[in-house]
Amino acid sequence: MTVQICARCQKTTREPVVVAIGHGASAGGGIVFACPGCAPTFPKQRDPFGSLLARDESVRRQR
After folding, report:
1. Number of Cβ within a 10 Å radius of residue 34
2. HSE-up of 21 (CA within 13 Å, CB side)?
3. Hey, how many other C-beta atoms are within 10 angstroms of the C-beta on 48?
4. Per-residue DSSP letters for 2-59?
5. pLDDT in tens, 2-49
6. Among 7, 58, 59, 62, which is least packed by CB within 10 angstroms?
């Protein structure tokens, strides 16, 4: 069972929800976790591959 700290309320949770992927230039990135109660308060992250997949699909249809 994984225990993480909520990025919003700073309490530990045994039911962590991934709410973002952090990016960093020198230290790399990390996963941002929230407790189930705080998770809905985080903005929905865009899928970085979603626009690429949609573009590839539209290019295939044009051929």
Report:
1. 23
2. 6
3. 8
4. --EE-TTT--EESS-EEEEEE--SSS--EEEEE-TTTGGGSPPPP-TTHHHHHHHHHH
5. 899 999 999 999 999 999 987 777 777 889 999 999 999 999 887 777
6. 62
